[in-house]
Amino acid sequence: MIHFVTDRQGPGGSITRREWLRLGGLGLAASPAAATSASKASGFGRAKSVLLLYASGGQSQIDTWDMKPDAPEEIRGAFRPIATSVPGIRVCEHMPKLARLAHLYTIVRSLAHDDLDHGSATYLALTGQFHPQKTSNPPPRPTDFPTYGAVLHRVRPSRRWPYSAVYVNGPALVPEVPGPGQFGGFLGRAYDPLWIGDASEALVPFAGLDTRHDLSAGRLAGRRSLLQSVERARRHLEDNPALVEMSASYRHAYDLLAAPHVRQAFDLGQEPAALRDRYGRHRTGQACLLARRLVEAGVPFVTVVWCLSNRGQDKAPGQTDAYGWDTHNDIFESLQHHLLPRFDQTFATLLMDLKQRGLLESTLVVCMGEFGRAPLVALERTFAGTSPGRKHWAGAYSIVVAGAGVACGGLVGASDRHGAYVKGPSLGPGDVAATMFHALGVDPSGHYTDPTGRPFPLATGNPIADLYKG
Fold first, then answer.
1. Mean pLDDT of all residues in 145-173
2. Which of 248-269 are b and which e, b meaning 16 or more Cβ less than 10 Å from the residue's Cβ?
3. At what angle do helices 429-439 and 148-155 cross, to 10 degrees?
4. Is it the case that residue 215 has pLDDT exceeding 70?
5. Domain total for the chain?
6. DSSP string for 311-329
7. Which is nearest to 185 in space by CA: 155, 154, 162, 158?
8. Which of the two residues, 224 and 441, has the higher pLDDT score?
9. Are the beta carbons of 414 and 371 closer than 8 angstroms?
């Protein structure tokens, strides 16, 4: 079944007086000087699409991308590093396929922030803004900052797609309810991304796009005309936000039904069986294959939620599909037998598929979680599991970036000898946000406005320039 479901800020996420003054000087868009400067920077506008792989739950940097083999056993853990296709770069032994493709991506080892719970950190990761209730698990609210795809739809809506952003295998559950930061927020529900649930359950995963046999193009056009008549009759109610959002949802639905290229993009049955097997016949495998098809079809922003629930293993320890990256206990068993084999297989297949189709040059791929895991391996009595794991940790964690002009086979930043804190300058989610907008050709130093005309910054950081240095 497919389900639809910074430092520039003041306390509570409000914009400081200095930021208001800066935004006021920008007018309705970035200044010409800023736009010119951005367009000359490396990577600006190189991406037609961003493909964000969101490792919900907090992927352990020490057991994947930033191993510490010389640290004490209680820090280095049970896994050993292996050589990659890039001399000097080593990754976890349980990621052999990704090790052979290290020349296609760059590892950033210097991400850090100070939010230590999944809900608010998910919000930070997917909006680039700190939640007013830092280190908490708040529900989504209409006053939230919008997710990246919603902002993109506000400043540069797609010409080919009624939605500028699609979430696949989502929304990310924390651990059983959707986390904040994945929706249109204060822009309104009309800016919500299109949600696609489990892409592995059906041949055409978005069954709602199948037109009924008894509904001809003429009848569909007639229904749309009737809807337009009703809308004209209720224009006096346009101040009602709920009606406005409902109207936008109907328009999006008709646009989806009317566009053959949209229906075809969701049809995984067009893919060779062997390729579907290589991606993996499971939720994340087929979600990544669908994401590649959406990128190929021109969707500007695609997010794959890698693990529907951050801690689904608590209720279904025998189901690999249920596992999330929140490995407080049983971390090495969970990674070795459930999480890393599929991650290695699917992510490697996705990178090669994008590369072979010529899509990697125009697609910025970002793989990240909301934070990392603690250096010290320890058993936590308040969590399920019988062997040690790692707590939440945001003092240093890693992400992986590829495509759209990013230097191949590189490293950006470093953590200390225990993987606890960043050595030198650190980067944050605001910088990742700026990098994604920058790659899409949207100047991250600009701003957008909410429905009342209030300005908000596109990003609270700066594009990561070191990603483009060979």
1. 95
2. bebbbebebbebeebbebbbbe
3. 40
4. no
5. 1
6. TGGGT-TT-GGG--S--SS
7. 154
8. 441
9. no
- Residue 186: name the closest of 234, 134, 127, 235 by CA: 127
- Quick one: residue 139, left, alpha or beta (phi over 0 = left, psi -120 to 50 = alpha)? beta
- Domain contains 240: no
Mean pLDDT in residue range 245-252 = 55
Closest CA to 110 of 421, 373, 409, 459: 421
129 within 8 A of 460, measured Cβ to Cβ = yes
Contact between 52 and 440 under an 8 Å Cβ cutoff? The reply is: no
Q: At residue 261, does pLDDT exceed 50? A: yes
Whether residue 40 lies inside any domain: the answer is: yes
Alpha helices in 335-396 (DSSP H): 340-356
Q: Are 123 and 181 in contact (CB under 8 A)?
A: yes
Amino acid at 135: T
In a domain, residue 248? The reply is no
Residue 468 to residue 456: CA distance in whole angstroms: 27
Cβ atoms 169, 321 nearer than 8 A: no
The pLDDT of residue 202 is 58
Name the strands in the sheet holding 165-168, side by side, starting at the edge strand that comes first in the sequence. 194-196, 165-168, 301-306, 49-55, 363-368, 397-402, 105-111, 410-412
Mean pLDDT of the chain: 86
Spell out the residues 6+ positions from residue 52 whose beta carbon is closer than 8 angstroms to its own: 148, 301, 302, 303, 304, 366, 367, 368, 436
Please state, in angstroms and rounded to a whole number, the distance separating the CA atoms of residues 321 and 64.
19
Residue 301, in any domain of the structure? yes
Higher pLDDT, 351 or 1: 351
3-state secondary structure of 162: coil
Which pLDDT band, with edges at 50, 70 and 90, does 71 fall under?
very high
Backbone angles phi, psi at 260, to 5 degrees: -60, -40
DSSP state of 470: -
Q: Give the CA distances from residue 59 to residues 65, 83, 324, in Å, rounded to whole numbers and listed in that order.
A: 10, 20, 9
- What is the rounded distance in angstroms from the CA atom of residue 251 to the CA atom of residue 190? 10
Indicate the pTM of the whole model: 0.85
Parallel/antiparallel/unpaired status of strands 105-111 and 397-402: antiparallel
pLDDT greater at residue 342 or residue 25: 342
Token digits of residue 229: 């008549």
According to DSSP, the β-strands at 165-168 and 194-196 are: parallel
Domain ranges, residue 388? 11-110+123-206+266-468
SS3 35: helix
3-state helix, strand and coil shares in percent for the chain, rounded to the nearest 5: 40, 15, 45
Chain-centre distance for alpha carbon 408 = 21
Neighbours of 7 (CB within 10 A): 10
Q: Residue 452 sits in a domain of what CATH number?
A: 3.40.720
